[in-house]
Structure formats: structure tokens, C-alpha cells
Amino acid sequence: MTPDFAPDSPDALPLWAVWKGDPLAEQAGPWPAASGFSGKLGEICLLPDASGGLSGALLGLGDRAQASRHRFAMAHAAGLPKGLWRPFLPDDLDPDEAALALLLGQYRFTRYKGTPHDGARFICPQGADAHRIAAQAAGEFLTRDLINTPANDMGPDALEAAARALAGEAGASVAVTTGGDLLDANLPMIHAVGRAAEQAPRLIDIRLGDAGPRLTIVGKGVCFDTGGLDIKPSASMLLMKKDMGGAATALGLLKMLALTGAADRMRIRVLLPVVENSVAGNAFRPGDVLTSRKGLTVEVNNTDAEGRLILADALTLGAEESPDLMISLATLTGAARVALGPDLPPFYCDDDATADALSRAAMAARDPLWRMPFWDGYESQIEPPIADLDNAPSGGMAGSITAALFLRRFAQGAGRYVHMDIYGWQPVLAPGRPKGGLGQGARAILAALPRILA
């Protein structure tokens, strides 16, 4: 479905949003208090008119001190009746946040079961930027759909088809290098990781815009990760359809940039190394030493640390154009989740001004990120005795940092580099975030770009 707001209409019913413990709207009359309405999160109080019909409703937002994002999405989850509604917000609730929550609450993944959202519809809250909010929701819906689709229907071929479809909508150009052509194009590590799969590995290269600063986005596209010959336990494979979450988020961000007109002000390049990490006789092996596009050699000490290998070639390719800003998005390490959990992705950046802009934008966009250090003291951990780099340092400590340091070696040449170690998955139901695929970082990037690339 395409998320959007309903046109304004005099027939819309009022929906008053209320913080727990705050005075109720005078228009509500005595009915809410008589029916026990308190304003707790997600609570709905339907208001009757004089004839017994529906005159409006109250929506509880809960306690102000609760750390809950996208509260207004509870209007969908709480079962607000089907119809057209006009939201009225407390003065201290950001109208953009409320508007985004209303659209995100419409999301349903219905490819295999169920029906698209067919419930309440909303007029955009007064003061919100309807077009920009709808663009953000559309990008997020694309990301979620791509991640939620299992690998039998979202392998490298299907992910390429989705990228081509989006490029066609946005008026972007696409070039794809596949299979053995990756070797001719000097993208050897993408080929090595993906060569054992039935569907060939590839590098998808999308360009949009022809003037302004250069922005390059690199998204990890491992459509399924068995772990390779260092095979994962079966329980660890259950979520590995989401290992292309970086590519899915990059495509969602591209959709946001296209719909908001940002491509008129910058030159955007999206690079997606896309593979399946499979087990077969020609799979790359533990102990192999691979030579990257950059010429650096990499000892493979774990075939389950494959994401950084494919990203390395794509980052090298992107850096060769010396973009003003290069960003990598990847579901890269379990260590990031151990450190910060699934809801707070770390990002790495050496430039303080860029990092500050991202941190501020992440808070404003309700798309949280947390800065982590490129800690130079750990550089020696990624340098094995027989090659330039190690893809999986032993010891298990600082795994997200050492992965980021590995990638930074290949991003040299970009004006500024940001790496985001995202999770790409919502493990439990939350307002506006059903269990399943989730975009992380895209809205923060969208909000920060005007300041970073000014």
C-alpha cells in the first residue's frame, strides 16, 4: 500500500489526543470521566452524540515520561473505528511525529496472509509537513516489505528487480555487474562470497541527480546468510532473511530522497553488493586469503563474517569518485546488539560536525542512533600475520568497532565516512513498529543531510 493522508473534509470526526492525567477537551463533556477514561497509552474513548451516534473520540497518549515513540500509531492498534478522523494534538506533541506515527501505524505485510490496512484514515495534523512525512513513510514501507519477504522470494534476482523498479519510479539510472563479470570489473570479494549460491552475486549501481554535492550510500545485501562453511546453528538462521536489511534501508532512503526532491540538490549514488552466503563445493573457505578491489589482502578466519567483505569492494568503488559523504548501512555484527540492543544502532564517524548533525537529526526524527568510536587502538586486532587484514579477529571483544575499523580501510578517499551497524528488525510489537522488518537510520540521514552537505 501507499501511505498517505486523507483529503480534508468537513465530515471528519475529531480525535483528541490526551496525556495521562491532563484535563480533557471541553468538547468531550462528562462522558469520558463517567466511563473511566484516564488517558493511558492506547486507550480509546468513543464519544456519543445526542442521537446515540458517534461525535468523536479521545486517544490516550500515556505518561509524558514514558520512553515511547510513535504513540499516535496506537490509534490503529487500539481499534479506532473505520472512518475519517481529524487529529487534535496537545501543544507539546510534535505534529510531524504524530503525523508519521499515523502513517506508520497503517503498515501491514500482506504478501502471504491478511489484507492491507482498511481501518481509520486521518487528515494530516495541523502544522505537519504532509508531503515530507508521506515520503518518509513510503520509504519505510518499502524497506519493511523487502526485509519481511523470505529469501525464496527475495533472493539476489528479486532484490535487483526491486532496485530497478524503484530506479524507474525515481528516474534514476541502474547498472548491474553479475557473476563472473564481477571479476572482470575487479570486484573479487563480492564474487568470492556469493559464488556458491544458485543466484549469482552482483553489484547494483544506481545514480540519481546530476548537480550538487556527491552522496554515496552503500547497503549490505546478503539475501540469506547460512554462515557459509562456518555454518550457523539452525536457530541463528531463522532471521537471516533480514541480512539484506542494509540494502533494503538504502533503497528506502533513496525513495525518501527522490520523493522529497533532494535529488535536485545533490548527486546520489547507491551501491548494493548483493549475494547469498551459501554452502557448496565452490564456497570460499576459512583460511582463504582474498585480494580486494583496493589491493589489500584479507585472511578469512570466519566465513560468517562475510558482510564486511562485500562491503569492502563496494566502498572502494564508491570512494574512487571522492564523494563528499559516503554512508554504509549494514546488519553487520551481533556485538552491536549486545552493546546497545536492537532499538539503538551504533554509528561511526571521524568527523565531529557530521556526527553531531546525525545525532541531533536522529533525536528530532525519532530514529535513534548512538555514536561509537573508530578506536585506533584496536587496529592491530584486524591485522593478521599472513595478510593485510583479518575479517574476524579472535577474542570476541569490541566486535562492532573492529568491523567498523575494517570498513574504514576501504572508505579512504571519501570526504567523510559514516558507518551504521543496524539491526533491521523489530523483535516485539511497539507503536508504529510491528514485529518484523524495520528501517533504521534512513530518517535520521534524511534530516541531517541539509546540514552535513550545506
UniProtKB/TrEMBL annotation:
Pfam family, one: Peptidase_M17_N_1
Domain Cytosol aminopeptidase, residue spans: 302-309
Keyword presence, Lyase: no
GO MF assignments: aminopeptidase activity
Keywords associated with the record: Aminopeptidase, Hydrolase, Manganese, Protease
InterPro entries per record: Leucine_aapep/pepB, Macro_dom-like, Peptidase_M17_C, Peptidase_M17_N_1
Record PANTHER family: LEUCINE AMINOPEPTIDASE-RELATED, PEPTIDASE B
Similarity comment: Belongs to the peptidase M17 family.
Record protein name field: Leucyl aminopeptidase family protein
